[in-house]
Amino acid sequence: MEVRLLRPVLVLYTALFLLFLYGPMIILAILSFQGEGGGPQFPIQEWSIYWYKHLLGLAETSRVSQLPVGASLVRSLVLAFMTTVVSVTLGTMSAEAFRTRFKGAGPIFYLIILGMMVPGVLVGLGVALLSNFLDIGRAWWSTSFVLHVVYTFPFAFLVMLAIFNRFDRSVEEASLSLGVSPAQTFRRVTFPLIFPGVLSAMLFSFTLSYDEFSRTLFTAGADLTLPLSIYGTFSVEIYPNVFAFGVLTTLFSFTLLVIYGLLMKRFTARSKSRFAGQEEA
């Protein structure tokens, strides 16, 4: 196919892809500004921020009860934070171990990757049955936490493995040959160089755990996380306050991306200035 014919096809394909990707979010954002008497569908009865006020408890009276997001939001944030710390630590240590060839590395690699490939519903159901068999109570901070780590750990591991594969080992060897201890070498040489990978692994782990649903459904116990609480409201009736909450959650995710971008930009600027200083010296 000639270039002049291929170009409009690619433009149309890209436009349809972007529309499919962001169209639902745009519709959700528009419907979140529905008036008090409006429902979760078009047409818009009245443009207002009533459902945002309702979500924050600022609306005086309402025919709709508030979303149970307070305690469940805290649980999801704490669970995502715990999962991020453990997954990134394990992922970094495992990737560090894989820098050296050892017996059984192949099977262990695929066992780690298996955690992100097994269907979440099956794993969650299996852990729930095992907990009942062993008479272990299910809770978001115990059984769900373990499953979240099993799920996010492979992502952190793959990110760190890619970083270590590009790592120049001679830098560490130079530090060790100068008499610097392995712990200080990791803190002052290795960690600053792998910091972008650590940051990416943290972003992956946090976002995956924050909105994880299927693995949490059977293992969270009585205290629900945020995705389960939102899902519980769907079984009654959907109101635009759910859309308003979706918009705020999306803004929260974008905020995380902005923080990630600023940290990466700062790290890149510091690396460039340090490299320039070494060249001048």
Secondary structure elements and their pairing?
Layout: H1 3-31, H2 50-55, H3 70-97, H4 105-117, H5 120-134, H6 143-165, H7 169-177, H8 182-210, H9 214-217, H10 226-234, H11 240-280
Helix pairs in contact: 1-11, 3-6, 3-8, 3-10, 4-6, 5-6, 6-8, 7-8, 8-11
InterPro entries: Bact_Polyamine_Transport (IPR051789), MetI-like (IPR000515), MetI-like_sf (IPR035906)
Keywords: Cell membrane, Membrane, Transmembrane, Transmembrane helix, Transport
Subcellular location: Cell membrane
Can you describe what's shown?
This protein has 11 helices and no strands. The chain has helices at 3-31, 50-55, 70-97, 105-117, 120-134, 143-165, 169-177, 182-210, 214-217, 226-234, 240-280. Helix 6 (143-165) crosses helix 8 (182-210). The longest helix is centred in the last third of the chain and has 41 residues, at 240-280. The model has no long low-confidence stretch (mean pLDDT 85). Belongs to the binding-protein-dependent transport system permease family. CysTW subfamily. Pfam families: BPD_transp_1. This is ABC transporter permease. It is a multi-pass membrane protein.
Q: Could you give a short description of this structure?
A:
The protein has 281 residues and is mainly alpha-helical. It has eleven helices and no strands.
